[in-house]
């Protein structure tokens, strides 16, 4: 191993549930060990500001001056991330990877935007911060996501898993990494909990906790067949998605809550299975991380669709809620070392690309 860094990763995902923070000891190639991790939920006011910024971004669409609310959203993000670092209480770290909040992702227009400022936190915590991980990949013609695959490969190597492993993350959006002895293939898979959360929000419920809402519902496979005709599902991989790319909720306006939730769980499972099949690699196991692994409706439907074991990340000893934050600590070390984080087979970028910007304490 080269020099081992103590890296602190920070991730705020598309579901806007809060900030994940985690420490990882790594040289940016292998995982040496894991440190503490924490998830700090956004306050209602912070979540509202971030939601408003995301909706303003959709209207803005990278045309003209950026919406004023972005500055307010960056204040909220920096404050929430500061709280997460303080709550983690990890002591001195060598480097921080600060993903920020994606408010708009348009790789077809060579644009992606993650809000959050690196410099303030770097000054405050006295260490280098890597941020803006995706822009260079997108500007070079890549999809800008997923970036976690090179970390998923390090996790699979660390766990010494034999054969071919898929790591499927079911957050707001889904993404999958296929780790073989010689290759790393990856793609977003489509919607995960994003449309399900939005649908339940219209019923005043925050999530399909433990599958409670979807459990007794009846999926409408005709609707799903129609949704799966969307351009995203027919594009070649690697591909990436924005949280708001899948506007299916109008089709569920007069559907009972249980049936709607079951339909969206099935949509998640079928779209993930479809992308995995498109990738054409025989798998020995699928390890599921992200909040969707806690939804038995989605997990059961995935297992019905795929002919290898589908297992939650805990079954191989991973702290699933920390994986994305660990990933951005790991990726930050790679940026520091000039190692690439994205590849033609993970984001479609023409050549392996480092990405990320580093700031140092003033
Ligand atoms: N106990 C649970 N049962 C069912 N679903 C759950 C449970 N806990 C979390 N979820 C779902 O998982 C979502 C959050 O997942 P996660 O934290 O992996 O997403 P994220 O990291 O914000 O998104 P992304 O990976 O797209 O950036 C919640 O919005 C909810 O829908
Ligand atoms: C643009 C963006 O922020 N994409 C996220 C999102 O959330 C899940 C999926 O879509 C994923 O590809 C990506 O995040 C993970 C951490 C990644 O880059 O690997």
From TrEMBL:
Q: Which domain of life is it from?
A: Bacteria
Q: In which pathway does it act?
A: Cell wall biogenesis; peptidoglycan recycling; Amino-sugar metabolism; 1,6-anhydro-N-acetylmuramate degradation
Residues of the signal peptide: none
Q: Which UniProt keywords apply?
A: ATP-binding, Carbohydrate metabolism, Kinase, Nucleotide-binding, Transferase
List the Gene3D superfamilies. Answer: 3.30.420.40
Write the Enzyme Commission number(s) for this entry: 2.7.1.170
GO terms for MF: ATP binding; kinase activity; phosphotransferase activity, alcohol group as acceptor
Offer one example of a GO biological process linked to this entry: peptidoglycan turnover
Pfam families from the xrefs?
A: AnmK
Catalytic reactions on record: 1,6-anhydro-N-acetyl-beta-muramate + ATP + H2O = N-acetyl-D-muramate 6-phosphate + ADP + H(+)
Q: Where does ATP bind?
A: 13-20
Quick check: keyword Amino-acid biosynthesis in the entry?
no
- Which SUPFAM superfamilies would you find in this protein's record? Actin-like ATPase domain
* The family this protein is said to belong to: Belongs to the anhydro-N-acetylmuramic acid kinase family.
Q: What the protein does?
A: Catalyzes the specific phosphorylation of 1,6-anhydro-N-acetylmuramic acid (anhMurNAc) with the simultaneous cleavage of the 1,6-anhydro ring, generating MurNAc-6-P. Is required for the utilization of anhMurNAc either imported from the medium or derived from its own cell wall murein, and thus plays a role in cell wall recycling.
Protein name per Swiss-Prot or TrEMBL = Anhydro-N-acetylmuramic acid kinase
* The species this protein was found in: Algimonas arctica
- UniProt lists the gene as anmK
